[in-house]
């Protein structure tokens, strides 16, 4: 059984492992925030003015150009890591490269052939078209289409269309009596993280998986509806392919051979079979998928009768039938080179006067393609511009109160590898000193701001969005807050899909930010060769004005977290959120026949609420008396309380995920689930005894957090 996931066609997603138009907001924050009544243009203090004035769209474009004109798949471009560290050094950060030795694999050769019952064949191209207009689409060292961490092997068999490959899709196929054992799964992108599609296929005895892009995810912006495709227009190029990792992201991110410890050259290596597939897989374009799906027309249950959400896409002449009995077969070959290989995180530091308080800002650098103009290098360009802004401020003699650490992660795309290994290495320091982690991955893939964060960061993020002028659809007389408020006005809950994950699951406050496309904005060619400088300057963000605004916001957030005398984190903002999660849990229970005693959880939330409000009083008196010792006490409480939400042993079956308030859904990979220990014991196991046990553990965690805040 599974909760109903509300899919809203929507705003783009900033997390690079997440997909575009079907972002699932299983949970949004409690309520839309208040409309801004602030004056326009925003009033800034002198330091804010220096920081924001330093931002220049043309220099951002220069950084973007650098990052998008050389192959930089994980572990393959040390010079780009060094270049990043060198820019930060130039702008006053002490910089270095942190190296890890991790398991990665790279494509050697692949093929995919369809054999019709009459013996004739169709060979999939497995290529994205070279476009004259887009210079990096023809680079000789462009990256083949493949799945990171995919299994080396051949598979040849009949195949079944499995929808988006969630557990519920497989349940439906079983209910329809479709034989899966020994077959190849043909799955559509969208919905759960791609690695979980492969995992589900594998767990049903299937021997290979092929995952295709579908214009059905593009709303009205399709060639079939008369919209020209890239490079001539904003629709998806029919040959574009979504590369990506097939790691089992909801079980364990990071190097699969070193679960729970860091990957040094001589680190012992563990069995990786719990977190990567043992059946081969390939990604394909919708053009390659068309004949493969068409061969299933008339066989098995037609898509329209399967009655599963999002089962039927929009590829012409295709019924999205399950396909049993078609007599057509696929031969899939996926040969990868496995290696233990170095990766490089670039790290830049400015020591604060309080070294036991640290703000970390991170963006990954590796991309599946030569470009990566949105994912992730829109964020990388912003981080160079941010370091430049702080160097301007430093010229005035300013020094941060708290230590600032900039991180340019490698190997995020394979499974958050650079950030996870780094957090594993520096965990004792981070647990003591980290105040918050600010993530920027896809800074820009469209114009609509999109933010997800732990509740304690909501207030400061809202305040600072009001200080950034945000160009939007031709007008520039509004703030980022105005645009965000108009388009959503709610913070998302963090699930997984980018480098904040390791921080969040060690109890560190976190935010993930970026801007994506709405339903009428150009289709973002996620993990395709067309996520290029040409696409960005033509469709994604011509003029780099959105880059600039998002960068200014991140810069202000970092500035205030690093220098406000009272740390601007709001523990009390957890109160309404926890109560919302409780109500949702209650609804989940009500939709089943089970019963659960939630009194321990209710009471823990109430204790937390009392402590958080008392904390506010104490902080108020520290501020009004300007008592620096007392401010240190309250700042440390604000820094530390969320550590309480973690449990050493992690969630059932997934030790890595220690945060008991939010986690990526077991079968979604990206989309969050709240009170995950309790909720998933019900929705996945149907085990109310286990759920009751997790009510206790979750309540205890909330009490620990309350205890840290207690005055
Ligand atoms: C803006 O709204 C806040 C509360 O929502 C209020 O305290 C403040 O006075 C208002 N400011 C202006 C300028 O109206
Ligand atoms: C690394 O990236 C830079 C900048 O894009 C590029 O100039 C260089 O050729 C790349 N190196 C390799 C080995 O691909
Ligand atoms: C075999 O079947 C396919 C699909 O129906 C068709 O396109 C093709 O022309 C057929 N080949 C022969 C030789 O009949
Ligand atoms: C797509 O177009 C149809 C017909 O014009 C319209 O009803 C629908 O709302 C549009 N969908 C979106 C997501 O804009
Ligand atoms: C799908 O639902 C429709 C109407 O709800 C029903 O008529 C049909 O039998 C269902 N199809 C299957 C395969 O269960
Ligand atoms: C399957 O698709 C074909 C081509 O689009 C169409 O002619 C046919 O009616 C469809 N069949 C069903 C059962 O939907
Ligand atoms: C796998 O398939 C490829 C491509 O068809 C072929 O070259 C190779 O020999 C096959 N390998 C095995 C072990 O069957
Ligand atoms: C920052 O502080 C650390 C720890 O105290 C020290 O090792 C390092 O040298 C300092 N860096 C700079 C640039 O002052
Ligand atoms: C920066 O913005 C200005 C003003 O809109 C514009 O003329 C210029 O082309 C932009 N620079 C780049 C590199 O896009
Ligand atoms: C859960 O819902 C029931 C009614 O369905 C209500 O009586 C109870 O108070 C609710 N519990 C919580 C913790 O919200
Ligand atoms: C609850 O029990 C009834 C009767 O046994 C059953 O029909 C129904 O499907 C059950 N509902 C759920 C959500 O398990
Ligand atoms: C607060 O105290 C600090 C020294 O601890 C001093 O520098 C600052 O000026 C004081 N601020 C106010 C508003 O009194
Ligand atoms: Zn990314």
Automatic annotation (TrEMBL):
This protein's UniProt keywords: Carboxypeptidase, Hydrolase, Protease, Signal
CDD domains, per database record: M28_PSMA_like (cd08022), PA_GCPII_like (cd02121)
Boundaries of every Transferrin receptor-like dimerisation domain copy: 596-710
PA domain residues: 162-233
Annotated signal sequence range: 1-15
Classification via InterPro entries: PA_dom_sf, PA_domain, Peptidase_M28, Peptidase_M28B, TFR-like_dimer_dom, TFR-like_dimer_dom_sf
One Pfam family matching this protein: TFR_dimer
PANTHER family for the chain: N-ACETYLATED-ALPHA-LINKED ACIDIC DIPEPTIDASE (PTHR10404), VACUOLAR PROTEIN SORTING-ASSOCIATED PROTEIN 70 (PTHR10404:SF46)
Name of the protein in its database record: Glutamate carboxypeptidase 2
The organism of origin for this protein: Massariosphaeria phaeospora
